[in-house]
Every structure is written in C-alpha cells, then in structure tokens.
Amino acid sequence: GAVVSQHPSWVICKSGTSVKIECRSLDFQATTMFWYRQFPKQSLMLMATSNEGSKATYEQGVEKDKFLINHASLTLSTLTVTSAHPEDSSFYICSARDRVAAGSTEAFFGQGTRLTVV
Amino acid sequence: GNSVTQMEGPVTLSEEAFLTINCTYTATGYPSLFWYVQYPGEGLQLLLKATKADDKGSNKGFEATYRKETTSFHLEKGSVQVSDSAVYFCALKGGSNYKLTFGKGTLLTVNP
Hints:
The complex is a heterodimer. Chain A is mainly beta. Chain A contains no helices and 11 strands. In chain A, a hairpin with a 2-residue loop joins strand 7 and strand 8. In chain B, the strands form 3 sheets. In chain B, strands 2, 5, 6, 10, 11 and 12 form a 6-stranded mixed β-sheet that branches. A 4-stranded antiparallel β-sheet of chain B has the order 3-9-8-7, with no helix packed on it. Chain B has a two-stranded antiparallel ribbon with strand order 1-4. Chain A binds chain B through residues 6, 32, 34, 41-44, 46, 49, 93, 95, 97, 105-112, 114, and chain B through 32, 36, 41-46, 49, 51, 89, 93, 97-100, 102-105, 107.
C-alpha cells in the first residue's frame, strides 16, 4: 500500500524557536496533502490543505503566519511551527492523496510527530 | 456542515468479547465513510471503508455497514483480541474536496 512518512517522529524544542516537520509520500505522488493536529484524547482537527505548487488553504482559526506550510513537490510537504510556545505542544499528523488514483477516496496517513515545547 | 458523532469511551472488554462502537453522521449528499485505527504512539491506519449505502466494509474481523436510513456506520467485531487495543475513529468524506471529518475517537482496551 501507499506509504506516507513523517519526520521527525518526535521533537522537543525551546519556546520561541521554530520547528519544521516533513511529510513525504514514498511511493506515490501527492497532489494534495493535509495537516492535522490532535490534542490528547481528542479527535484530529484539520489545520490546512496543502496543494502542490500553490498556497495552502487554512481552516478557520488556524494562524497562517504561525503554521507555515510548503508543498514544493509532489512528494513533500512541510509544516513549520514558528515561534513555538508550550500551547503548540501537540501531535501533528499529515495525510496525502494519491495523484494518480483520481477516483480514490482514501487518504494515507503519516505516523505523526509529537511536538513538545518547553 | 458535515459532522460525525461517535460513541464515547473508553471501552474495556475481555478477550473474545463482542465489540460495537457506534457512529452516526450528518452530511449533505452521499459521503464515503471510514473507520481508522490508531495504535499507541502511531499515526492513523485505514481499517475499513464504505462508499455507498448498504455497502459493508470489512477487514481483520471488523465490519461496518453503511446505513443511509439511520445515517450510521457502526463498527463491530465478533471476538476481540488484546492486539485490538487502540483508538478507533469514525470519519466521513463528503464532496470533492477530500477533506475528512473525524469523530472524537473511542479508546478500546482489551484485557486478556
């Protein structure tokens, strides 16, 4: 099956610094990637939709300047948490849709990144 | 808008017990429905899906039937195992934007 890889799996950073999370589709090309945030014992909340070669579409309430998304190629999207604060600590998960399988309803998920801001 | 209401947990069962996790949805049109599983410390894995009314998705002994008349997609398994302990998410995809709307998740713990 299709594989989506996220890196790093976990990261600890100091308050005020920026952290970049990578999401790669390993064996398919992803026109669209999605970034989710998951709080403890809660569901996944969609943060933004990332389309290759264009600006990301952010969900209501998500700060564009704080969560920078870049989707420069068909296999890579990055999420940068800028000037991170402890309240940004969370589990971030990406998913990707296969460009070739146009009729597919399935999105493939990365393993997630645990961000802890101290 | 779209929404998913999922049975709140946690659910604790003994091995070989019968499992049901309820899921109902609200959506316009004809959404596709999914169950995802999240094992501790990992991302989500697709467990099963159904794309139209009366379809039954099945995988690893789990089943769910797309019931349009009751707007439901309940997850069932006849005999759970310890290895089934995880968080289960019901989700739907409506329209052409490929966004998934998730329920809050149900933590299942299976004891030996």
